[in-house]
Design brief:
The complex is a heterodimer of chains A (about 290) and B (about 170). In chain A, the strands form four sheets. Chain A has a five-stranded antiparallel sheet. With about 290 residues, chain A is α+β, with helices and mostly antiparallel strands. Chain A contains twelve helices and 14 strands. In chain A, a hairpin with a 5-residue loop joins strand 12 and strand 13. Chain B has about 170 residues and is of the alpha+beta class. Chain B is about 40% helix and about 15% strand. Chain B is built from six helices and five strands. In chain B, strands 2-1-5-3-4 form a five-stranded mixed sheet, with helices on both faces. In chain B, a hairpin with a 2-residue loop joins strand 3 and strand 4. The chains are: A alpha+beta (about 290), B alpha+beta (about 170). The interface between A and B is medium-sized, with 30 and 29 residues.
Chain lengths: ~290, ~170
């Protein structure tokens, strides 16, 4: 089908974009990569009165990595972020998850921040931002700026904590801690589809190479990205003597998946267990390899 | 109230083309209906099938998931622009013909654009690289085996041409 009519604004500066959003109020949608918004328009599941296309706004396509983390601007395409070596060094989980986001051709156009602002609980990037404890920088007209922590940003399914007139200008993904490792895995019907369930894991070791912290983020099994702290379940042990299966069982009990035409709730719960154990082991291995390289 | 229209100019296959279109005109429809370039095929119109893939400034994108106004000032290459100026097929097009990488041809323009960019970025793809590269394009006829063969055959033709060019 074809998109419904809308008023089109193509600002060239951030101030113009914020003014356009302020003028349009709650009837406006922001167009960045368009790989989620345009399908919704084509299927007539969304009919915004105004579209503010930010693709011609200068200075929003930044990818900046330092020892504190990676800041990704609203127009940085997923494919570019996936290939950015300095971003992968600072926080490898971003690129690990991006490889599961649709297909390379979609990632050529889709943006990281756009995927966060779409706030789909089955999507990969909201889970990554949540498990890392990152934040989204939000701007509004009159110079207002605020950083919204991931735990508050994903307010509900397809419901970001953005007020009318606000624009998500960048996202900040905290850096990998020393002696930490990450892993991402998901199960989908077809490669590139939304996952039936997926898990992002972060494991940190202490100076004696015992588990200091272990967290997972789950997609597809709750209304928003679900983060679980499994540190106490695993105990402060060396990875070799950790009971990963117990951690997986804990995760299975903690999730409340729903059934849909793609998979039943029990099967999704089963997947969370399998993927939790797999990603925790992989993240712990990566953490130990990183620690012995020091 | 009539819908606002925009003057959109895009460089398509090296030629500046323009039309007066509403903002909601998809790039795929702009190419087909406004410019008459019907080589770009439209399948699902929500980004799943890959038939409408074109090159935007050299990078493959879904033309059904972009508005024509967004492509204004950019360069688009469609399947009509892949052959040499004298009309002889490109290495990727020759490989698809040689290996029977198509039957009905509906998905072919999308595959050709996707594979052209894939082999430009990665001249020696592994089997996995090929599968990942074409995973966003659906074909309902071939069972993909001959398409995968065609991609590998295209890498050979391109390598032969590079050797001939440097000799």
């Amino acid at each position: 089908m074809k998109p419904p009519p809308f008023a089109y604004r193509a600002p060239e500066t951030l101030d113009e974009a914020l003014a356009a959003l302020a003028a349009a109020g709650p009837e406006a949608k922001v167009l960045a990569g368009g790989q989620s918004l345009i399908p919704l328009l084509n299927m007539r599941l969304a009919a915004p009165a105004v579209i503010v296309d930010i693709n011609r706004v200068g200075g929003l396509d930044t990818i900046a990595a330092d020892e504190t983390g990676v800041r990704i601007g609203a127009l940085a395409r997923q494919r570019r972020v996936e290939r950015a070596a300095e971003a992968a060094r600072a926080q490898p989980l971003i690129a690990q998850a991006l490889r599961h986001v649709a297909h390379p051709v979609i990632r050529n156009r889709g943006t990281v921040v756009g995927s966060l602002a779409h706030a789909d609980p089955a999507a990969e990037l909201p889970v990554v931002l949540s498990v890392l404890g990152g934040s989204v920088e939000v701007a509004a007209a009159a110079g207002e700026r605020r950083a919204v922590p991931a735990a508050e940003f994903f307010a509900g399914p397809l419901e970001p904590a953005l007020r009318p007139g606000e624009l998500a200008v960048s996202a900040f993904f905290p850096a990998l801690a020393p002696r930490a490792g990450t892993a991402f895995a998901e199960t989908a019907r077809r490669h590139g589809d939304y996952g039936l369930a997926g898990v992002a894991a972060v494991v940190e070791l202490d100076a004696d190479l015992r588990v200091r912290a272990a967290r997972i983020g789950c997609l597809g099994v709750a209304a928003t990205p679900l983060v679980l702290d499994l540190t106490d379940v695993l105990g402060h042990r060396p990875p070799d003597s950790c009971d990963w299966t117990a951690a997986a069982e804990h995760a299975k009990r903690a999730v409340r998946p729903e059934a849909d035409i793609h998979a039943g709730a029990d099967y999704r719960r089963h997947l969370v267990g399998v993927l939790t154990e797999r990603t925790l082991r992989a993240a712990a291995t990566a953490a130990r390899e990183g620690a012995t390289d020091e | 109230m009539s819908e606002e229209r925009f003057e959109v100019e895009v460089t398509v296959n090296g030629v500046r083309r323009g039309a007066h279109v509403p903002a909601r005109r998809l790039l795929s429809d702009f190419l087909r209906h406004d410019l008459g370039l019907t080589g770009t095929h439209v399948g699902c119109e929500h980004g799943v099938c890959g038939c409408c893939t074109v090159l935007l400034d050299g990078e493959p994108v879904r033309s059904c998931l972009m508005f024509a106004v967004g492509a204004a000032g950019h360069a688009v290459t469609t399947v009509e622009g892949l052959a040499a100026p004298d009309g002889s097929p490109s290495p990727v097009q020759r490989a698809f013909a040689e290996c029977h990488g198509l039957q009905c041809g509906f998905c072919t323009p999308g595959f050709l654009c996707t594979v052209t960019a894939l082999l430009r970025d990665n001249p020696r793809p592994t089997d996995d690289d090929v599968l990942e590269g074409i995973s966003g394009n659906l074909c309902r006829c071939t069972g993909y085996q001959n398409i995968v063969k065609a991609v590998h055959r295209a890498t050979e033709i391109l390598a032969e041409e590079r050797r001939a060019g440097s000799a």
